[in-house]
Amino acid sequence: MENTNHDDYIVVKAKEQGVQVIGLTRGQDTRFHHTEKLDKGEILIAQFTDHTSAVKIRGKARVMTKHGIIDTDE
Ligand code: TRP
Known about the structure:
Layout: E1 9-14, E2 19-25, E3 32-38, E4 43-47, E5 52-58, E6 61-65, E7 68-71
Antiparallel strand pairs: 1-4, 1-6, 2-3, 2-5, 6-7
The structure holds tryptophan (TRP).
């Protein structure tokens, strides 16, 4: 895939039980292809890939990226 940098990681830290990190497919078709459930305090470190171009987060979490830190409940 041209001009696609997969080097950066995002970090998601669950601030409550059962936070969902949902991977959305890359390309014309946008659908969920994976859901990862996190317990309170658990951390997921993840990269975007050829298969994943967007991530949706359900629940209270802290999301850390190179763009900054965002809390879903703010
Ligand atoms: N399948 C879409 C794509 O690869 C997924 C996507 C990327 C998306 N960015 C988005 C969907 C922003 C909604 C909003 O482009």
